[in-house]
Amino acid sequence: MTAWSVCTPAWQRKYLGCAAGEAANLRARLALVMLDVAWGLFEMRMAANPSRDPNAAWSEIAHLYLRVIPQPNVSW
After folding, report:
1. Both ends of the chain: CA-CA distance in Å?
2. Contact present, 61 and 41 (Cβ < 8 Å)
3. Cβ neighbours around 20 below 10 Å, total
4. DSSP-assigned states of every residue in 13-58
5. pTM of the prediction?
6. Residues 6+ apart with CB under 8 A from 52
7. Which of 31, 41, 32, 24 is nearest to 8 (CA)?
8. 1-42 pLDDT tens trace
């Protein structure tokens, strides 16, 4: 709930004294939602196949849905 509120211009003006633009706030709000969706998908895939490498599963999801370039030599 807090993460959603901090991305509103009214909250930002009240607590920060300035506010980001509407487009930037919308992208920030949707990015948080997408991260939650990706995490839920990760949990579902790991529950379906507990023996799967979690780093490989998260790398695949992060690349496909969050556009993060996989780094197989670095653990998440």
Report:
1. 26
2. yes
3. 15
4. HHHHSS---HHHHHHHHHHHHHHHHHHHHHHHHHHH-TTS-HHHHH
5. 0.69
6. 45, 46
7. 24
8. 566 788 889 999 999 999 999 999 988 888 888 989 999 999
